[in-house]
Design brief:
The chain is of the alpha+beta class and 413 residues long. It has one domain: L-amino peptidase D-ALA esterase/amidase (4-Layer Sandwich). Helices cover 22% and strands 23% of the residues. It contains 8 helices and 16 strands. It has a 6-stranded mixed sheet with strand order 5-4-14-13-11-10. The chain has a 4-stranded mixed sheet with strand order 2-3-6-7, with helices on one face. A hairpin with a 2-residue loop joins β8 and β9 (232-233). The protein is globular and about 55 Å long.
Length: 413
């Protein structure tokens, strides 16, 4: 296979954190022995080492390294809050349950409306019902926290977000301009009673109130409660990278948070290797759609909306590294904001300045997706639909058998 300059594969290989051998999926290989997981027991959410700060030693000469928590909250002063809704079981009763959903709030600062932030975005596949993106894209500004939830709860969440801003700024819409709430969504209807629209305004306000710095709960929490990715239980994942910027003469941080709800089992790539060809979940009724994915990127570096848009596009490189092909019915959106509230220095050529941001965006996006899968655990939803969590021990076994090194972020011994 030829690698043409500027092809997606070419860029994917350029943006690897630590370049592994070329994935076997790129070349003809014999049919691998497929491992299907039966009878695995697990639980939603992550309670392993992610609950403690993931302190990492800086290696000499390491260009990109994880932040203290390997989370989007390593970008100060970003905070994240979840509200998880799990109620009922058995057959679907539209409007009643079972409920497997929630809401996640990303707060870039204390008062985003009062101090608007630069924002860039990339619409990779526009099959989605996100609120607030046209104005945000036009102006290059973020003026509210970002909410993630299920598809049919999008508009109620947006209304709750507007009311949240009005409490702090009662003159909005009277003497002050209107506010542009930003809400993104994925369809969790395979496990959840989607028609019930069970996310209430109070849940949104609670997620905003709960938002905190430090470790971020991952997997089947908040908006990720009912999500499915690559046939496994998906949901919330996060990652970060720190590097020294010669231009800014200081260290900067790039963080990612994803809501994973996309992909087919055989497409999954983890750590640069075609895991989906060797390990698949138990067969179940396939979903009618291939889902969606939302990527939120944050940095503390001073960047313009144009530069952030370029960085957001590199989120696609990270998704491609996980096996995404951006299916027809997949709503794939990347939003990137800066908490700096300042402009970068003028540069005749910004290539050397931005390249590390491109690399960090790709690396953190791919890693956040992997961590969303490895953190989720099993989840049973409506009509007895059971989605297994990707079992770390089975993943490690496949990697050992194939002679692949485990990913650098691997916390499971």
């Amino acid at each position: 296979m030829a690698l043409y300059p500027f092809s997606p594969l070419f860029f994917s290989l350029l943006c690897l954190d630590a370049v592994p051998p070329i994935p076997r999926a790129l070349f003809p290989i014999p049919a691998p022995p497929l491992i299907e997981i039966e009878g695995m027991e697990g639980k939603a959410g992550m309670d392993r080492k992610e609950e403690e700060p993931m302190r990492r030693e800086r290696k000499k000469g390491e260009a990109l390294r994880p932040g203290p928590y390997n989370a989007i909250t390593d970008v100060k002063p970003v905070r994240v809050g979840h509200v998880t809704l799990v109620k009922g079981e058995g057959p679907l009763r539209p409007g009643e349950g079972p409920v497997r959903t929630g809401v996640t709030a990303i707060l870039p600062g204390e008062d985003v409306f009062g101090q608007k932030l630069a924002l860039g975005m990339a619409v990779l596949n526009g099959f989605g019902k996100a609120v607030g993106l046209p104005q945000a894209m036009e102006l290059g500004r973020l003026e509210t926290p970002i909410l993630l939830t299920n598809t049919f709860s999008t508009w109620r969440a947006a209304e709750a977000l507007v009311q949240h801003v009005l409490r702090r700024h009662p003159e909005v819409g009277i003497r002050l301009p209107t506010v542009n709430p930003v809400v993104a969504e994925c369809n969790d209807g395979f496990l959840n009673d989607l028609q019930g629209m069970h996310v209430e305004k109070e849940h949104v306000w609670e997620a905003l109130e709960r938002a905190q710095a430090g470790p971020v709960p991952q997997g089947a929490v908040g908006a990720g409660t009912g999500m499915v990715a690559f046939g496994w239980k998906g949901g919330i994942g996060t990652s970060s990278r720190v590097f020294f910027s010669q231009t800014l003469e200081r260290e900067v941080t790039v963080g990612a948070l994803v809501l994973s709800n996309y992909g087919r089992p055989e497409e999954l790539i983890l750590g640069g290797y075609p895991l989906g060809l060797y390990l698949q979940p138990p067969k179940s009724r396939p979903r009618e759609e291939q889902g969606s994915v939302i990527v939120i990127l944050a940095t503390d570096a001073p960047l313009t909306a144009r530069q952030l848009t370029r960085i957001a596009r590199r989120g696609a490189v990270g998704l491609d590294r996980t096996g995404s092909i951006h299916h027809h019915g997949s709503g794939d959106f990347v939003l990137a904001f800066s908490t700096a509230g300042a402009y970068p220095p003028f540069l005749p050529d910004e290539g050397s300045f931005l390249t590390p941001f491109f690399q960090a965006a790709a690396v953190t996006t791919a890693e956040a997706v992997a961590r969303s899968l490895l953190s989720a655990g099993d989840m049973e939803g409506r009509d007895g639909h059971l989605v297994r969590g990707l079992p770390p021990e089975a993943v490690a076994r496949v990697f050992r058998e194939q002679g692949w090194p485990l990913p650098s972020f691997w916390p499971w011994d």
